[in-house]
Structures are given as structure tokens and as C-alpha cells.
Amino acid sequence: MPIIAPSLLASNFLRLEDECKMLNESDADWFHLDVMDGRFVPNISFGLPVIEQIRKTTKKFCDVHLMIEEPERYAEAFKKAGADQLTVHIEACRHLHRNVHQIKSLGMKAGVALNPHTPVEFLSDTLQDIDTVLIMSVDPGFGGQEFIPHTTQKIRNLRRMIHDRGLDVLIEVDGGVTEENATAIIHSGADVLVAGSFIFHSKDPKATISKLKNLD
């Protein structure tokens, strides 16, 4: 079964406590929290104060995805806010090895995200230090985009790299995930499915989460 990580970026922020309660009662495994700074991506989302409040509502794994420049400046603050995993973008890190080890030294899982144009081979020298690789299947910054078909080949390439080295690294996929393409994504080698609009804009979000969770 895949790990399901609903993205709260697509939730109703006027009803955020209710949305968190719904996720707690659902088959969701993780809370996926997207942080955008308006510099690395052309959008601004939420930050530390909101994550602190979300953390109070749940015991589930909080997966914080930093779409920001200079993520090393804020790693300790996000740990204090309640992040269980902190994911940084390879494109935003001038010293990725240092960034990854900073995150792990703070007691969090370390994730590295790749934009659609970035080959998985760029992780060749750091893959053994990473807990989760987040493959972006849309251009980061906005929800509701369509899945980029070539992503499934990237997933297969990364799965082969992980297998050949005997590593224990999760593959997370974020962007345009729906019930129609989720099975192909899983079969390509993904472990974690991030979905935002598809879940929160559905008529019955809990049922939608269950459908994704029970795909094989």
C-alpha cells in the first residue's frame, strides 16, 4: 500500500482545524506541508506559525516541503515547529551534502526534491544519505496542475538506482496525482503519493484518500 500524504495547500484555510481533524480520521499517513517563499517559486504559501498550529492537531507524520531559497537558514526553526521530515530542493542547495546532514543532525528525516527538469542522476553522490526523494511531477509553485507523463520514467530510473545500491530510500511523487494515474505511478516504483486538489476538492475527501490508499 502506498503512503498517502495529502497536501494542505489545497485545504480550506478558513476551516483548517476541521481539515486536520478530517485527515486524522482518514487513511492518510502523512500531512504534506508546502512552504513557498515567492523567490524559489513564483508563489507564497504559509510558514512557521501555521505549521506550529497544524502540529498541535495531529500525531501523524508531518512532511514539510521547503520550496525556498537558503533552506539551511530555517531548518532549526522548522524542527521546533514540528517537522518530522524536512525536504529541500536540490536546485536551491549550493551544498546539498551539508544541507542533508544539517537536517539529520536536528533529528528529522531528510528529503531532497527534484524539479521536473532535474535528472535523478544528480543525486548519485548523496543518495545514500537521503531518507526520501521527492520527484516533482509538475512545476512547483501552484496546485491543480496536470501530471507530467515523463515523470514515470524518472521514477523507474530512481528506483533502479536505489535497488542497485541496496538502499532504503522512499520515492515520493508530488503534482497532478489522481486516481487515474496513481496506479501507474505506484507501479513505476513510488512509495508516497502527495495529492492536494484531488483530495480536498473532492466531494468526500476521506473516501478519496481511502481509494488512493487501497490501490495496488
CATH class: Alpha Beta
> Helix segment count?
8
Major beta sheet summary: 8 strands, parallel
**Computed CA radius of gyration, to the nearest angstrom:** 16 Å
Strand order, largest beta sheet: 1-8-7-6-5-4-3-2
Category by helix and strand content = alpha/beta
- Report strand %: 15-25%
> End-to-end span in angstroms?
7 Å
Q: What pattern of helices and strands is seen along the backbone?
A: EHEHEHEHEEHEHEHH
The CATH architecture classification is Alpha-Beta Barrel
Share in helix: 25-40%
CATH fold node name: TIM Barrel
Global mean pLDDT: 96
> What's the CATH superfamily, by name?
Aldolase class I
List low-pLDDT spans: none
> What is the number of independent domains?
1
Tell me the total number of β-strands: 8
Principal-axis shape: globular
What does this molecule look like?
The chain is α/β, with parallel strands linked by helices and 216 residues long. The protein contains eight helices and eight strands; from the N terminus they run E-H-E-H-E-H-E-H-E-E-H-E-H-E-H-H. It has a single domain (3-213), classed as Alpha-Beta Barrel (TIM Barrel), CATH 3.20.20. It has helices at 16-25, 48-57, 75-81, 96-105, 151-165, 179-188, 197-200, 205-213, and strands spanning 3-6, 30-36, 61-67, 85-89, 109-114, 132-136, 170-174, 192-195. Strands 1-8-7-6-5-4-3-2 form an eight-stranded parallel β-sheet. Strand 3, helix 3 (75-81) and strand 4 (85-89) form a beta-alpha-beta unit. Helix 2 (48-57) packs parallel to helix 3 (75-81). The termini are close together. GO terms for molecular function: D-ribulose-phosphate 3-epimerase activity; metal ion binding. Keywords: Carbohydrate metabolism, Cobalt, Isomerase, Manganese, Metal-binding, Zinc.
